[in-house]
Amino acid sequence: MGEHSHHSHQGHHHSHSSTNPRKLLAVAAIAWGLCAAQLFGSFLTGSLALLLDTVHVLTDALGVTVALIASRLALRPSTHRRTWGWKRVEIISAMFQASILLGVGALVIVEAVRRFFSPEPIASAEVLIFGVVGLIGNLMMIVILVGGDHQNFNMRAAFLEVVNDALGSVAVIVSAVVMSTTGWYGADAVVALCIGVLIVPRTLLLLRDTFEVLLESTPRNLDLQELQKHLESQEHVVAVHDLHVSQISSDLPVLTAHILLEEECFTSGHSAEILRHLQACVAEHFDVSIEHSTFQLEPESFGSEQHYRNLP
User: Fold this and answer.
1) In degrees to the nearest 10, what's the CA dihedral of 234, 269, 4, 235?
2) What is the helix, strand, coil percentage profile of the chain, to 5?
3) pTM of the predicted model as reported, rounded to 2 decimal places
4) Rounded to whole angstroms, what are the CA distances from 136 to 25, 47, 117, 140, 237?
5) What's the pLDDT tens digit per position in 127-142?
């Protein structure tokens, strides 16, 4: 039978405790307020750059609200039906945010290209006012979010969105200054295009990271071959096969492995000590601390009977 280890998660540097709900709540309140103000401003001025910045803020507001809900759900205890609780909600919600952002970014880039060839008059003085309001709001959110847990996909998404948003607000201010000094309304489309370009690449990165978790890929900063060699180098370990490391959520890596041990370990009762050593090994030796490890200990003869059918 497989042996299961579940050490306490307290003191683990990727713990959910660093996802501060009060921080997220404050950011969500600012983001929704800012969204309403900028939406009014974009209709008032007819600025596409300001409208895109509003959409940017809307995705921030949605993202932070979803992150807040996900962080609450992740704390729910596991049940017989959901043995990992609701931890996967973090990944699904981050993927949902990234998908919305990608769609919006693409739409606005298309509209900005169209407007570049046929600029429309824009109330530049008002755009400047709303751009400054947006920048102040974003800087407030950055101050709240700085020092958050950037291992958590939702916190990372929220922080990146707010930083990009602040850049978006700076770009809106620049477009307003250019339009009021030169009268060239094409500046609005150029800035909208720049904001769109800010959105798309980081969204693709976030989508890639969430897909990798859903595909049960090995965590990025863990070398599986190195891990296997390290386990096989331990005393009494003959071979390691069926080794899998994946993530349930950004803060919860899990490992399963079949460990072939020398025959005498089972007669001497030494296998329990080896198991404890292997669990400590994967929890402490590598950059990714794996506290959920399941090892199936097998006698050496078992390997020849199985013919390593499942050897990776």
Assistant:
1) 0
2) 65, 10, 25
3) 0.69
4) 18, 19, 32, 6, 60
5) 899 899 999 999 998 8
